[in-house]
Amino acid sequence: MILILLGAPGAGKGTQAEMMKNYYALNHLSTGDLLRAALKEGSELGKLAKTYMDGGRLVPDDVILGIIRDYLAAHPDEGILFDGFPRTVVQAQGLADLLTDKEPTAVVLVVPDKAVIERLSSRRTCRECGRVYNPALGIVPALENKCGCGGEIYQRDDDRAETIANRLHVYHTQTESIIEFYREKGLLVEVDGTGKPDIIFNRIKTALS
Ligand code: AMP
Predict the structure, then answer these.
(1) d(CA 92, CA 54)
(2) Which residues are part of the catalytic machinery?
């Protein structure tokens, strides 16, 4: 099973990905998490990605497709949940070329912009494990400002108001077209992404059954 989770930044992809990977026993590849880990390590990939990520712009397609190619080679014949990828039609086509005989299913979480802006502004992330907390949705750590893993909880630079507007613009101008890409191929499942995480997850399970 190859699943692709689509939706605006803040649509709840990270939260749903966590539940989906456990339920369907899939490997979870979040390109955003992977780039943030590279940035933390200070690797060449991290340094390159930072110049794009800080402004809320997309990292070039060839860089991302290189990461995906390596990942698929390391996980042949395994179920994968892609989260935050593909973000452009070039990436979607690149994935189709890499998968050759397998067809993915794309699940898009549909959330209005207004709700997305509210969610992103109050979102906090663990610096160590990447877990997401959001007081506005009642998702809070047991200890104030400390993740269950012991990591510090912080606000991602790109979750600040100035960058959120740009990320949403990028989503509407570049990423939404891949929804059409999968719809035309009959590979798209649309799910209402508003409401509590458990309810959204039930909708996903029903849509995929
Ligand atoms: P995310 O955590 O998925 O919101 O990603 C954070 C940032 O990482 C994005 O705003 C982009 O700068 C970069 N990024 C993540 N995934 C991709 C991708 N598939 N293509 C291009 N840039 C990406």
Answers:
(1) 24
(2) 13, 87, 123, 156, 167
At position 19, the amino acid (one-letter code) is M
Ligand 1: residue of 87, 120, 124, 181 to mutate (most ligand atoms within 8 A of CB) is 87
Distance CA 175, CA 190 (A): 15
In tens digits, the chain (209 residues) has pLDDT values of 999 999 998 898 988 999 999 999 999 999 998 999 999 999 999 999 999 998 889 999 999 999 999 999 999 889 999 998 999 999 999 999 999 889 999 999 999 989 888 888 998 999 999 888 988 778 899 888 899 999 999 998 888 888 898 889 988 988 889 999 999 999 999 999 998 889 999 999 999 99
Distance 127 CA to ligand 1 centre (A): 17
Instruction: Say how many Å lie between the CA of residue 177 and the centre of ligand 1.
Output: 16
- Measured from the Cα of 13, ligand 1's closest atom is 3
**What domains are there in the chain, each with its CATH number?**
2-26+79-111+168-208 (3.40.50.300)
Cross-strand partners of 27: 80
Q: Does residue 7's CB lie within 6 angstroms of at least one atom of ligand 1?
A: no
End-to-end CA distance of the chain: 13
pTM reported for the whole predicted model:
0.84
Q: Measure CA 131 to chain center.
A: 12
